[in-house]
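User: Structure please.
Assistant: Input sequence and predicted structure:
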Amino acid sequence: MVLVAYTAFNSSLSEFKRASYSIRAVEIQGEIQNIVFEGRLLPKETKFEENETFLTGIECNLEWQEDVSIDKSQFVNVLKGNRYNQIQFVNFQPGDVVAFR
């Protein structure tokens, strides 16, 4: 199993929003059977408030899908090669996660 997560640690909601970021493709040996899950955090329009007592963050909603076929993925394209498969990240942004089997 391979899990890829795009983290973002910033108190600015505008920095967390859906900007266009580039992630390099990943090459792996073996066959990718399916996507176990893929998820995305969608930040709410709320004000971030720092707290000295406990850890806080930006409030978000979660989009989540399980057992996704590769051709239906929101986040990746897979190019099959002779020795390696290349995972290309498409629209993969801070707060996104995907796991392959």
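The longest strand covers residues 35-43.
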